[in-house]
UniProtKB/TrEMBL annotation, chain A:
Enzyme class label: ligase
Catalytic activity: L-glutamyl-tRNA(Gln) + L-glutamine + ATP + H2O = L-glutaminyl-tRNA(Gln) + L-glutamate + ADP + phosphate + H(+)
GO cellular component: glutamyl-tRNA(Gln) amidotransferase complex
Designated name of the protein: Glutamyl-tRNA(Gln) amidotransferase subunit A
Family annotation (InterPro entries): Amidase (IPR000120), Amidase_CS (IPR020556), Amidase_dom (IPR023631), AS_sf (IPR036928), GatA (IPR004412)
One of the protein's GO biological processes: translation
UniProtKB/TrEMBL annotation, chain B:
Complex and partners: Heterotrimer of A, B and C subunits.
Superkingdom of source: Bacteria
Function comment: Allows the formation of correctly charged Asn-tRNA(Asn) or Gln-tRNA(Gln) through the transamidation of misacylated Asp-tRNA(Asn) or Glu-tRNA(Gln) in organisms which lack either or both of asparaginyl-tRNA or glutaminyl-tRNA synthetases. The reaction takes place in the presence of glutamine and ATP through an activated phospho-Asp-tRNA(Asn) or phospho-Glu-tRNA(Gln).
Protein name, as recorded: Aspartyl/glutamyl-tRNA(Asn/Gln) amidotransferase subunit C
Enzyme class, UniProt record, top EC level: ligase
Alphabetic keyword roster: ATP-binding, Ligase, Nucleotide-binding, Protein biosynthesis, Transferase
Record-stated family: Belongs to the GatC family.
Ranges in a coiled coil: none
Gene name for this UniProt entry: gatC
Species, as recorded: Candidatus Gottesmanbacteria bacterium RIFCSPHIGHO2_01_FULL_47_48
Molecular-function annotations in GO: asparaginyl-tRNA synthase (glutamine-hydrolyzing) activity; ATP binding; glutaminyl-tRNA synthase (glutamine-hydrolyzing) activity; transferase activity
EC number of the protein: 6.3.5.-
Record bears the keyword Ligase: yes
Catalytic activity: L-glutamyl-tRNA(Gln) + L-glutamine + ATP + H2O = L-glutaminyl-tRNA(Gln) + L-glutamate + ADP + phosphate + H(+); L-aspartyl-tRNA(Asn) + L-glutamine + ATP + H2O = L-asparaginyl-tRNA(Asn) + L-glutamate + ADP + phosphate + 2 H(+)
Length: 458, 101
């Protein structure tokens, strides 16, 4: 079975017409795990073979009418999976086994999905390359010597290497969009609050979004149909009922669609090698009938500074609970990046510095949000690159945390504003995948899928 | 342009205490310049005029989300489950480091 050429939708068709079985799917995933997991450091925990086959057989005994019946999914190790080790890729949680289930994984299981295993990542989701894992960095599926992107590094590579048909991740500053783009996949960061955060290890509570990576836009819409919705266990979840996202995929062209391009997002920070490719992508939107309109986003150049005050501040609070007493190992087991961020956050929140750092950043956040709100009065979506550089060689920037922070220039403003964004493949440069993103106003996922689907078909 | 040493060793030790993290002197040598560089970088935000701008703490606009003060039995952890990940327990309790002499 060639699982690499299957999507969720095509697999469901084949399962329902009995062309394949769920056991076939699971065995194909396990085979790819056997072949690649050690080399690429993709999954930290794989569920027992026996349990997986049993689940697959149970699915095969049905008519596969459940929306994800028999579909193998990988889950980033930030999500609490009951009785399956959950580490957040940190030595602090190396031996932690949750006794409860996150809402997202519960919904996936109720839809019939088979959770194959837990994906490697930057520890605590701190990173844009995957190198901050406490358990070896995940390698890029297209080039073993390069980073996979982060922090949902294992999630993206698991899909690219055929270890599953889709993977769940998180996106707080680009953490699904970057690894999706670096592995030629589609990554959705939903509107903040659209998907429940219950049961997920918290990084920055006012930015964390539960996201996913898939092979195409249709699969992405299908997954969001399962994961989206209000949750009484997450007080920040949006109350509005989600629509059926699969219904949005009707566009054949982009006539009448206004696409914003910001000179402030400019290309000053974009690696020269990427400029041509990003331009080609933009021209494709135009060819489909989209109208490119310039919109200012004057405060986005300060996004990274704003992000690296607010996020470490929230991190310092969220990681305070890890005391090695009720669960996990002690605080000396935190890795270098976690320690850096806790320190920066604690400093920013401390007496004497709170106004100059934390409060100032909260105000700039307001300005960034206003920039986007104004822009969306004139355009339907905003086009932007995802990563400013091609994937670095593993280890290249490991002593340069600040340069790695700058990788978030195009992604972080989206999280600060709570907006949805869809990362789409844009082709290859030097044989390495490149992605672009389309950003929308709050709760515009259907619009993003509709436009993304038309673009993808080209 | 020379890097401004924003942080002193004493300041780092103070923040580490607040953060409940420990650094030995070798660590301090490693982290001090990194933290200084990062704080230097993010400190640039102070140059932006935000005088009459309100602070944003959340983006959903939701307010006062409460639930009924009722026990949800499906969300209860048994005592065994709650203790299952602790390194040290005693008679159904978590064991904590002594804080009194």
């Amino acid at each position: 079975m060639d699982i690499k050429n299957l999507t969720i939708i095509s697999a469901l068709e084949d399962l329902r017409s009995k062309k394949i079985t769920a056991v076939d799917l699971v065995e194909a995933c396990l085979e790819n795990i056997r072949k690649h997991n050690q080399d690429y450091n993709v999954l930290l925990t794989v569920e027992d073979d026996d349990k997986l086959i049993k689940q697959a057989r149970e699915a095969d005994a049905t008519d596969h009418s459940s929306p994800l019946s028999g579909i193998p999914i990988v889950v980033k190790d930030m999500f609490s999976t009951k009785n399956l080790r959950t580490t957040a890729a940190s030595k602090v949680l190396e031996n932690y086994t949750p006794k409860y289930e996150s809402t997202v994984t519960r919904k996936l299981k109720e839809a019939g999905a088979i959770i194959i295993g837990k994906a490697n990542q930057d520890a605590w989701a701190h990173g844009a390359t995957g190198e901050n894992s406490d358990f070896e960095p995940t390698r890029n599926a297209y080039d073993k010597t390069r980073v996979a992107g982060g922090s949902s590094s294992g999630s993206a590579v698991a899909v690219a290497l055929g270890m599953c048909l889709a993977a769940i991740g998180t996106d707080t500053g680009g953490s699904i969009r970057v690894p999706a783009s670096y592995n030629n996949l589609v990554g959705l960061k939903p509107t903040y609050g659209r998907v429940s955060r219950y049961g997920v290890v918290a990084m920055a509570s006012s930015l964390d979004t539960m996201a996913h990576v898939t092979k195409n836009v249709t699969d992405s819409a299908h997954i969001l149909n399962i994961t989206a919705g209000a949750d009484p266990y997450d007080a920040t979840s949006i109350k509005t009922d989600p629509e059926d996202y699969l219904k949005s995929l009707t566009r054949e062209d982009l006539k009448g669609v206004k696409i914003g391009l910001s000179p402030d997002f400019k290309m000053a920070t974009l690696d020269k090698k990427l400029v041509k490719k990003i331009d080609e992508s933009l021209k494709l939107f135009e060819k489909l009938g989209g109208k490119i309109i310039e919109v200012p986003l004057p405060h986005t150049p300060e996004s990274v500074e704003t992000y690296y005050i607010l996020v470490p501040s929230e991190i310092s609070s969220n990681l305070a609970r890890y005391d090695g007493i009720r669960y996990g190992n002690g605080r000396s087991h935190f890795g270098a990046e976690a320690k850096r961020r806790i320190m920066i956050g604690t400093y920013s929140l401390s007496s004497g510095y709170y106004d100059a750092y934390y409060k100032a950043a909260q105000k700039v956040r307001t300005l960034i949000i206003k920039d986007f709100t104004s822009a969306f009065e004139h355009v339907d979506v905003i086009f932007a690159p995802v990563a400013p550089v091609l994937p670095y060689k593993i280890g290249e920037k490991v002593n340069d945390p600040l340069t790695l922070y700058l990788m978030d220039i195009y992604t972080s403003p989206v999280n600060l504003s709570g907006l949805p964004s869809l990362a789409l493949p844009a082709g290859f440069v030097d044989d390495l995948p490149v992605g672009i993103q389309i950003i929308g106003p709050p709760l515009s996922e259907s619009r993003l899928f509709s436009i993304g689907n038309a673009y993808e078909k080209q | 342009m020379a890097k401004i040493q924003t942080l002193s060793t004493d300041e780092v030790k103070h923040v580490a205490k607040l953060a409940n993290l420990s650094f030995d002197s070798e660590d301090l040598q490693k982290y001090l310049p990194q933290l200084s560089a990062i704080l230097d970088f993010v400190g640039k935000l102070q140059e932006i005029d935000t005088k009459n701008i309100p602070a944003t703490s959340q983006v959903t606009g939701l307010e006062n989300i409460f639930r009924e003060d009722e026990v949800d039995a499906t969300r209860m952890l048994s005592q065994e489950d709650a203790l299952s990940n602790a390194k040290e327990t005693h008679n159904g309790f978590f064991k904590v480091p002594a804080i009194f002499e």
